[in-house]
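Ops channel
N.P.: pipeline sanity check, posting one input/output pair.
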């Protein structure tokens, strides 16, 4: 039986948001489809660059039940970019990934303030593929072997398109191979989502803006309640997403796995 979980994508207007009524340190999470997100400014140049940085990945619980043991996992992100060296409007998909090991109800180490992509060249939209894969204990060490080139070369930990790094294709190939290997079991893939974020999206599609995004599962970890955007806030003091006080009581404190990442869009002539 597949344990893949549907996700929702929200937005935190960290600089301009009104604090939650329940706490002066809590910022509401709204849907990335919300018109208020579309009101945020965006560079008016035809081409733009995008940087994407992981804020944190919160692991509430992965499919393999481990109350007092560590989960081994892999978070992979892929994004499409225009080729800065070509005049034609061709796109290339680049991928980056981070392996993690942590207990339940923890922020995964190694993913805090981790740059993933720099200088991604875009015009009006990006397709962002998000894969969260649980690695079986017996294979945990293999990922480090496969991707040792990434950690061994400091300048390619954040894949910077505009610097013309020659390793982009190599790293993307390694990541794709790792996801295929470790995500081949139906129980291994937790998330596999490809949202399209757009400057001017059609109805029902998320906006692409500078700011912080939140990806979380549609249902709490027990699966007995649907999580909605009003149920969550970003707490400045805790520096992470949490349930509101009301939702925490309703759901008995059960959140879901959730990813917070920042997007920074800059003009490019």
């Amino acid at each position: 039986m597949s344990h893949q979980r549907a996700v929702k994508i929200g937005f935190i207007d960290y600089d301009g948001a009104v604090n939650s009524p329940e706490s002066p340190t809590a910022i509401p999470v709204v849907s990335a489809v919300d018109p208020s997100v579309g009101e945020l400014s965006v560079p008016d140049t035809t081409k733009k660059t995008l940087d994407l940085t992981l804020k944190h990945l919160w692991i509430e619980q992965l499919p393999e039940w481990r109350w007092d043991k560590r989960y081994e996992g892999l978070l992979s992100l892929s994004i499409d970019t225009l080729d800065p060296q070509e005049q034609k409007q061709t796109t290339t998909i680049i991928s980056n990934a981070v392996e993690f090991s942590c207990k339940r109800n923890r922020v995964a180490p190694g993913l805090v303030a981790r740059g993933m992509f720099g200088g991604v060249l875009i015009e009006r939209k990006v397709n962002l593929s998000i894969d969260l894969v649980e690695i079986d204990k017996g294979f945990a060490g293999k990922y480090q072997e496969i991707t040792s080139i990434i950690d061994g070369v400091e300048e390619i930990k954040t894949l910077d398109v505009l610097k013309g790094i020659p390793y982009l294709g190599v790293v993307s190939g390694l990541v794709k191979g790792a996801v295929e290997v470790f995500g081949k079991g139906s129980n291994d893939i937790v998330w596999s989502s490809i949202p399209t974020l757009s400057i001017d999206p059609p109805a029902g599609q998320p906006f692409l803006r500078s700011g912080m995004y939140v990806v979380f599962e549609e249902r709490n970890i027990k699966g007995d309640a649907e999580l909605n955007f009003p149920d969550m806030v970003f707490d400045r003091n805790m520096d992470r997403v949490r349930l509101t006080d009301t939702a925490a009581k309703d759901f008995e404190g059960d959140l879901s796995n959730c990813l917070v990442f920042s997007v920074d869009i800059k003009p490019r002539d």
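N.P.: looks fine end to end. The two ends are 50 Å apart (CA to CA).
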